[in-house]
Amino acid sequence: MVSAPVLVLPGYADSGPDHWQSHWERDEPACRRVAQDDWLEPKRQDWLARLDRYVAECAAPPVLIAHSLGCALVAHCAQDAIAPRIAGALLVAPPDVDEVCHLLPEIETFAPMPTGRLPFRSIVVSSTDDPYVEPPRARAFAAAWGARLVELAGAGHINADSNLGDWPAGHRLLEELLVPGTRGA
After folding, report:
1. What is the pLDDT of residue 53?
2. Which of 12, 60, 156, 174 could be joined to 69 by an S-S link, Cβ 3.0–4.6 Å?
3. pLDDT digits over 47-90, tens only?
4. What percent of the chain has pLDDT over 90?
5. Is residue 96 assigned to a domain?
6. Does a structural domain hold residue 185?
């Protein structure tokens, strides 16, 4: 049972029904998806404004569950006035937006990836074979953000194609961030 507000931040193109984020949202009433106006032409300022509204609606500082481009959104919001109102973040499969935007120009407003320390507890989960980030770059993000790093072997982009279902191991990581006084990062 979740004890704090939880905001689900999908990445580019949203998270489909078989994505672990969608499983969590269906199974846990405290999880609320931050619905963006445009999933296929994301604009950083629009996504930040939408996240700010959702955080403002929370009764207590929320924990953010970000996937892919949602991780870049969190890194950008950490430099914004919204940051003190966030309790923590589970950052799953952060893409290297500095490289991926050449392949997917729709996300270029998210580059460059911020590398300042996050002012809240955080855990980065990456995969050794994620097509959107090289392992050394994912490690560098975690280190720069002051986040604990969890590396998965061969989990791809840690999405629906990874066949994680509701991803129990991810639930345990979320629980770390929800328990006051635990390290998380």
Report:
1. 97
2. 12
3. 999 999 999 999 999 999 999 999 999 999 998 889 999 999 99
4. 85
5. yes
6. no
Tokens linked to 127: 């995969």
Split into its structural domains, the chain has a count of: 1
* Structure token digits, residue 151: 């590396």
Backbone φ and ψ of 79, nearest 5° = -95, 5
The structure tokens listed for 60 are: 């207590």
Amino acid found at 83: A
Determine contact, residues 14/40, Cβ cutoff 8 Å.
no
- The residue segments making up the domain with residue 96 are 6-178
- Report how far apart, in Å, the C-alpha atoms of 132 and of each of 25, 73, 128, 171, 172 are: 24, 16, 11, 23, 25
In which band, very low, low, confident or very high, does the pLDDT at 2 lie, cut at 50, 70 and 90? Answer: low
The amino acid at residue 155 is: A
Distance CA 158, CA 153 (A): 10
In whole angstroms, what is the distance from residue 36 CA to residue 11 CA? 10
CA distances from 151 to 136, 143, 147 (A): 11, 13, 12
Closest CA to 140 of 107, 96, 99, 174: 96
For residue 1, pLDDT beyond 70: no
* Distance in angstroms (rounded) separating the CA atoms of residues 183 and 180: 9
CATH number of the domain bearing residue 144: 3.40.50.1820
Q: Quick check: is 183 in a domain?
A: no
pLDDT at 28 over 80: yes
